[in-house]
Amino acid sequence: MTISMYQASVPVFIRMLNNLIGILEKAAAHAEARKIDPAVLINTRLYPDMFPLARQIRIATDAAMSGAARLAGMEPPKFEDNETTFADLIERIRKAIAYVSGFKPEQIDGSEKAKIELKVRDGTLTLDGLTFLLNRVLPNFYFHITTTYGILRHNGIEIGKKDYLGKF
Q1: CA geometry: angle at 84 spanning 81 and 89, to 5°?
Q2: Nearest-angstrom CA–CA distance, 57 and 167
Q3: Which of 66, 48, 59, 47 is nearest to 9 (CA)?
Q4: Is residue 71 included in any domain, yes or no?
Q5: Domain containing 82: what range?
Q6: Burial track 70-96 (b if 16+ CB lie within 10 A, e otherwise)
Q7: Which pTM was predicted?
Q8: What are phi and psi of 165, to 5 degrees?
Q9: Is residue 1 very low, low, confident or very high in pLDDT (cuts 50, 70, 90)?
Q10: What is the average pLDDT across 87-102?
Q11: pLDDT, tens only, 8-65
Q12: Is residue 141 part of a domain?
């Protein structure tokens, strides 16, 4: 059995970003029901040297968009990174889903050996497409979604593994 680069990326991004919307909707409802200022949750970190929830979501959406774009040989879009409410963050996720949904299999399939160059702190990192997707994009994407989940769960939001994984 063979899995394509498109199947391993775009549908995964879309599914998990939709699950993230569901998690944020539960967080917003929780904050409203308990009269918690949503900014408290949006600015919460798991540990002082980690990014707050809003930044975790920004990085997850950027990972999905840049992953798909670079595999298709394109430059990813840049968002303003100015979201301050749950509604703003959900809208950002919806924009990322819309962007990623625009890719067709023929744009991404066959990118396993494509040369992907990333600007990193130390210079430029060059990876083939398969390594880029499996060892850079997907782990980074899942890390930031999981950290978002962890921040919210730690703060009493009633979410569980089913919310993270979504419905099958």
Answers
A1: 70
A2: 21
A3: 66
A4: yes
A5: 10-165
A6: bbbeeebeeeeeebeebeebbebbeeb
A7: 0.95
A8: -80, -30
A9: low
A10: 98
A11: 999 999 999 999 999 999 999 999 999 999 999 999 999 999 999 999 999 999 999 9
A12: yes
CATH code of the domain in which 118 resides? 1.20.120.450
Is 155 exposed, middle or buried (CB count within 10 Å of its CB: 0-12, 13-18, 19+)? middle
Confidence band (pLDDT; 50, 70, 90) for 90? very high
Q: Is 118 within 8 Å of 125 (Cβ atoms)?
A: yes
The alpha carbons of the chain give a radius of gyration, in whole angstroms, of 16
How far, in Å, CA of 35 to CA of 4, rounded? 46
Q: Which two tokens stand for residue 127?
A: 């990876």
**Residue 104: left (phi > 0), alpha (psi -120 to 50), or beta?**
beta
Examine residue 1 and state whether it is found in any structural domain, yes or no. Answer: no
Q: In this predicted model, what pLDDT tens digit does every residue of 119-168 receive, in sequence order? A: 888 899 999 999 999 999 999 999 999 999 999 999 999 999 999 999 88
Residue 16: Cβ-neighbour burial (10 angstroms; 0-12, 13-18, 19+): buried
Q: Please count the residues of the chain.
A: 168
Do 128 and 116 form a contact (C-beta atoms < 8 A)? yes
